[in-house]
Amino acid sequence: MLCLSGPPSTEFSPTKLHWQIRFNMRGIAKRAFQREWSPRARARAPVCPNCSRLQRQQQRRRFADSAPPKPPLTGLAPLPSRQLLSVSGTEATKFLQGIVTANVTRADGLPRTDGFYSGFLNATGRVVHDIFIYPFQGGPGLPAQEDGYLVEADASQMARFAKHIKRYRLRAKVTVRTISRDEASVWQAWDESPTAQPDMTSNESRLVLRDPRAPGLGHRIIQLGSRAPEMDLDISTEDAYTIRRYLHGVPEGQDEIPREQALPLESNMDVMNGIDFHKGCYVGQELTIRTKHRGVVRKRVLPCMIYDKDKAPPQTLVYDPERDSPETLTADMVPAETSIGRFGRRGRSAGKWLKGVGNIGLGLCRLEIMTDVVLPGEQAATTYKPDDEFVLEWGGEDNNTSSVKVKAFVPEWLRAGLSA
C-alpha cells in the first residue's frame, strides 16, 4: 500500500505519485524475476526427464573423452594435492609426540631419523588430518636453520592445518611455517617392471620414504627446490598415482578421510602403520585405544568397483578406462557419502561411497555385510552371502534417479592385517 501522507508543508503532486508507482512496480517485478530465475531457484525447479538424461549423457561423454589411462608400470608423479609444513626447534620432537598418532621417537628415546605415516586426531578421536612426517637436519638451503620435521598434509587445507598445529604450541620452543612449492615439493615414484630398479635413496636434495601404507604402493619423495627428482623414471600424473592408490585400497586426503568424521581404525590407519598403540598420550588417544582393545571395527575403507546393473558382478578389481556407451555411469558421478544398499532388498545401509574415478573408487563398507571377513564377537543380524549384490542410488525422484551396482574387495594386505 502506498502512503500519500507527508509533512504538512509537502504538496500533493500527481506527477510525483505517477513516478513513485512506476518505481515501486519496477522493484516488485525485479524481485519476482530474481526469485524465479536465481541459481538457487533453478536448482529447486523440477527438471524435465529428457533434459536430465541429455545432461547425464553429456557428462559421460566428456569424461569418456578425458578418462585417465591405465597407470604405467613405472612412473614419477608430482602430487600438487599435497603440501608441506615445517615444524622446527629444540622441542619439535616433544611437541609432535603429544599430538600425532605415530611414535616420533625410537625405542632408545632418541628422535626418529626415518620418515613415517601418521595422523592428527581431535579430542573425540576423529581424524583431522592424515599426514607424512619427514625428519630433517637444518642448515643453509634447507626449509629451516634448526633441526625439525617436514609434515605433509592436504594442500587445500594447509592454512587450517597450520592453525591446528599452532593451537597446541603454547610455550613450546618450536617454529611452524608453511613451505612453498618452490622450496620443496611432494612426489610419488613406483616401479613394477622386471628390469633393474632405479635409485630410491635419499641424498642432499631429496628425502625418500618407502610408502608404508600398503605393499607395492611405491616411494614418497620430498624434492628440495623447484626441480623434479633426478630418477630414471618417466614423468607420470597424479591421476595415475590416484588410480594405483584406489587399486591398493588406500585412502588419502579429506575427501576420502572426512575431517572430524572418520575414525582412524575405520580408515585403516592402524593397518597402514599410522598408529603406535604402545606410545604415550596424544590427542584423541583414549577412544582409539579403547576401540582397539575393547571394541570391534565393523566398517573399513575398501576398494570398490562399479558396474552396470545388467552385468554380472566382477571377480577381480581392475581399472577399465574404456566406456561401452554414453549411458555408462562412472565413479566420479557418484556423490560423496551416497549410501550403499542391497540390490532388490531393503534393510540397513551396507556402507557409503567416498570417491572414485572411472570404474573404481573407495567406500566405507560394513565388513559383515559386504565381505567374507569374519569379525570377532556377536554376528550381525544380516551377514554376508556370496550371491548378494549392492547398489548405489542417488538423484531426484522418478526418471531423475541414477543407480549403479558396486562390489567391494578386501586387499590381501588388509586381510592379513585384520587377522593378525
Beta-strand percentage? 15-25%
Radius of gyration: 27 Å
Uncertain stretches of 5 or more adjacent residues: 1-12, 38-47, 59-64
Distance between the termini: 78 Å
How many helices in DSSP terms?
Answer: 9
The main β sheet shows up as:
6 strands, antiparallel, barrel
Question: Helix- and strand-based class?
Answer: alpha+beta
Q: What's the helix-strand series?
A: HHHEEHEEEHEEEEHHEEEEHEEH
What is the number of beta strands? 15
Strand line-up in the sheet with most strands: 10-13-12-11-14-15
Mean pLDDT metric: 85
Shape: globular
Describe the structure.
- The protein has nine helices and 15 strands.
- It is an alpha+beta fold and 420 residues long.
- Strand 3 and strand 4 form a beta hairpin.
What's the SSE blueprint?
Elements: H1 14-37, H2 39-44, H3 49-65, E1 74-78, E2 82-88, H4 92-97, E3 116-121, E4 127-136, E5 148-154, H5 158-167, E6 175-179, E7 184-191, E8 206-210, E9 219-224, H6 238-248, H7 285-294, E10 299-307, E11 339-342, E12 351-357, E13 360-366, H8 367-370, E14 390-395, E15 401-408, H9 412-419
InterPro entries: CAF17_C, TrmE/GcvT-like, YgfZ/GCV_T_CS, YgfZ/GcvT
Subcellular location: Mitochondrion matrix
Keywords: Mitochondrion, Transit peptide
